[in-house]
């Protein structure tokens, strides 16, 4: 079902968390709300499920205005960060609770519970209590409980934050699989860009209560609207150089670095600029040579990560296929790929 | 608690146990001697009993003149205690939840009020309560003294339950609401089970407090038909005409047996009040 936030605002007392936000999630789409903590993404989520009442604007499920409906009447499924399983109930009772509340007959409930347990693959755990489950299993139970009512929308609040790295990888694809199998509209709240990029159709990146940009993961990575978006996506993160526009190129005063600006960039002579260079675009293969000293090196197995300090202090990061000839302290002369740089103005707006 | 894995002690436990035993030995010995005393006779001025007798316990099967039947008194005590416990449990478990979770008007005022009432010694109120009960016609009735006792025990109960509700995670309630349950249902079937240890502890605490209550029934319901055990016991020692110390001791033992049994079975739950955690 389509979800629409129309001029949605929320404040707690005098603190305005979100002002006039517009967001549309298409039917069957999985959207990530991505942002640093305190940016209002969880507030948005809780408003959609009805735990927070909006202070202004409307929330629509399909064509139905649910702004003033209490949670109970909204038909949403939520997976909480802590899973919020009911500790005194078994797995089967946990999953069946929403149906029991609805007044469904026990035999039918049982059938539904078994079906959904099969979907999330926990059929063998039905008699256990939450405290007897591992993190990943609790996650699956929470997911099953959220899905059993066939909700209009599935809301996931940092669902992977409490899992260890390996499980996180597994549950990432698992949640995506279940979302696609059920065709349910889903909103994922996360501060982890990898989760957002790998699981979702589109990402809405938020900062201080505002959506900075909504786009597909690839679009957002290649074409960020602001320096904030560019710095949030990508691992290892992008590095920025401060400089000025001079004769159609980005240059750092007092050094010889001159990176030709893409033709699309229209910057006046002497304008202060921010040049974003992703680690994969600073390597021996680029076209603008930049010399510096390696001051940090990290082996990641398949790839190596280097931090290179340029003369005068600025830092560039480089990721390259594993090699063994570079040590900390070595002077290197690698090159920036000028076709792939991202140019921003002083305030971080993309040019 | 005790059967969970214990940390390996890095000191010996037997000296501690020995010390505690020595300290508590006088108490235990007194109890044993008290019990032996009730089933034996001895010469005046002697400490050693010389014959076994059950005449001190005869109050169980024959009612002494001028005294109410012991079983009636025991029943009264049981009704009194069970009723106050039920009222305290019912009201505290709901009021504690409201004060902990719901955004009610004047919540701060109620919290402060409960605290102040908790600090109020009930004895200072007793004259006023006496007059009130007389006016509403509940003087010398079990209901009256039950209501008063429950009211006086409530602040502690509410405060205690609020503390336990405070540590129940909000997410459980949010999940319940999202799952379609009404707020009452959330409280009843999701939150209440999380504070079961507190309910157990409070039930026990109220029961013991009610069972041991003396001053309220003595002042507010002293007459024979509604007497409770503590008042009965006090009546025995205050009776100058047929003073019988043997019976007094036997009634004392009779009175304390249920308390000892409860302590024996449930002392772990009672510790929860002081532990304050939600773990059972």
State the main characteristics:
heterodimer; A: 351 residues; alpha+beta; five-stranded antiparallel sheet; 20 strands; elongated; B: 280 residues; mainly alpha; two-stranded antiparallel ribbon; 11 helices; 67% helix
Largest interface: A-B, 26 and 17 residues
Tell me the series of helices and strands of chain B, N- to C-terminal.
Answer: HEEHHHHHHHHHH
* Beta content of chain A: 25-35%
Order of helices and strands of chain A: EEEHEEEHHHEHEHEEHHEEEEEEEEEE
Structural class of chain A: alpha+beta
Strand order of the largest sheet of chain B: 1-2
Largest sheet of chain A: 6 strands, mixed
Number of helices of chain B: 11
Mean pLDDT rating of chain A: 90
Structural class of chain B: mainly alpha
What does this protein look like?
The complex is a heterodimer of chains A (351) and B (280). Helices cover 24% and strands 34% of the residues of chain A. The two termini of chain A are 36 Å apart. Chain A is α+β, with helices and mostly antiparallel strands and 351 residues long. In chain A, 40% of the residues are buried. Chain B is an all-alpha fold. Helices cover 67% and strands 1% of the residues of chain B. A two-stranded antiparallel sheet of chain B has the order 1-2. The longest helix of chain B has 32 residues, at 70-101. The relative contact order of chain B is 0.13. The model of chain B is unreliable at 276-280 (pLDDT under 50). The chains are: A alpha+beta (351), B mainly alpha (280). At the A-B interface, β6 and α2 of A face α6 of B.
